[in-house]
User: Which sequence fits this backbone?
């Protein structure tokens, strides 16, 4: 218990002097905190900042988020990835309007019941926005706790994970017990844990010499910092290859919207196919979708990106045709119209290149 108290005291002191000035830390509005937490899932802080500021400017209230058109929320989220997050965010906003009169609930169980919110996010909202002694456990916190307390078992295992949640709860409870009416120790403690993992107790090359808890850290004392957390062997990445066509006719491009129930639902993209590693006749693929051979077909770009355990290569070609086919899967959009659509990350790059080509020919 003494170690818990010492750790909490060191963390709160360190956080008061070293916390980053992030825009969502300047508010106690639970809606703003909620939006930041959803955006920060699997996304770096520096990426999230402009998205959060733009979202809060255009949809400043829960009611505004609940009533926004799907195309608008997807456009605001464009480039952040994991688009199920934004659809659940809007569903949660609609639930709050319908069941809580548009007021973000303070009760932990009611927050946890909202679409897309798990134990970590509910704990983050309740502790940060409402200063409640609710624990959090994300990747940063797991790394800090396994090193400080010398936990060598895999944190993904049920027993170990439960132990980490218990530690997180003991920490935030200890912080709560030190509070006075003017302070927000539960909020600060949980943010301090995440901040320490993000800035100091990093996955590689941690800065142990400046860590406020280095004298308490078992991993440092036993020279096991690089070994913890013990996440086991990572699965090998799977390579996937796609061919995409930017089909242009009379200054417009052919695009289609991904249907409901699929990955990246509601987002726009160019016609594309997943192909095997062996060479594929691009002309044959173009003819398959258009029903005719393009007047010209030339390379546009090769884009590589990663999604979870997949390493994806998109080989894009620019296909020019003289006459639009009578029946084709998609719609034709001008460069100006394309700018109002929300694309997946790779296809947004392709759109920019294809539009640049069209404009350069005028």
Assistant:
């Amino acid at each position: 218990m003494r170690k818990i108290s010492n750790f909490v005291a060191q963390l709160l002191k360190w956080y008061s002097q070293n916390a980053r000035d992030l825009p969502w830390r300047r508010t106690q509005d639970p809606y703003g905190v909620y939006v930041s937490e959803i955006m920060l899932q699997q996304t770096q802080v520096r990426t999230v900042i402009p998205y959060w500021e733009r979202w809060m400017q255009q949809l400043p209230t829960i009611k505004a988020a609940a009533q926004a058109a799907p195309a608008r929320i997807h456009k605001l989220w464009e480039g952040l990835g994991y688009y199920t997050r934004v659809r659940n965010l809007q569903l949660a906003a609609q639930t709050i309007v319908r069941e809580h009169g548009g007021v973000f609930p303070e009760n932990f169980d009611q927050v946890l019941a909202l679409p897309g919110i798990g134990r970590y996010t509910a704990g983050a909202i309740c502790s940060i926005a409402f200063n409640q002694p609710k624990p959090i456990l994300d990747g940063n916190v797991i790394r800090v706790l396994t090193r400080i307390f010398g936990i060598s078992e895999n944190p993904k295992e049920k027993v170990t994970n439960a132990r980490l949640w218990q530690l997180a709860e003991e920490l935030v409870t200890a912080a709560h017990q030190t509070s006075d009416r003017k302070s927000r120790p539960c909020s600060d403690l949980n943010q301090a844990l995440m901040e320490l993992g993000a800035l100091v107790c990093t996955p590689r090359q941690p800065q142990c010499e400046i860590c406020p808890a280095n004298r308490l850290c078992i991993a440092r004392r036993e020279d096991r910092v690089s070994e913890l957390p013990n996440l086991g062997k990572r699965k090998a990445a799977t390579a996937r290859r796609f061919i995409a066509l930017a089909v242009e006719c009379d200054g417009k491009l052919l695009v289609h919207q991904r249907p409901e129930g699929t990955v990246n639902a509601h987002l726009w993209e160019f016609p594309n196919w997943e192909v095997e590693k062996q060479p594929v006749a691009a002309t044959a693929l173009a003819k398959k979708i258009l029903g005719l051979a393009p007047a010209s077909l030339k390379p546009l770009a090769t884009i590589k990106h990663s999604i979870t355990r997949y390493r994806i290569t998109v080989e894009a070609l620019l296909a020019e045709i003289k006459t639009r086919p009578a029946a084709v899967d998609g719609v034709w959009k001008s460069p100006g119209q394309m700018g109002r659509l929300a694309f997946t990350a790779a296809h947004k790059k392709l759109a920019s290149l294809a539009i640049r080509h069209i404009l350069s020919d005028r």
Observations:
- Residues 158-177 form the longest helix (20 residues).
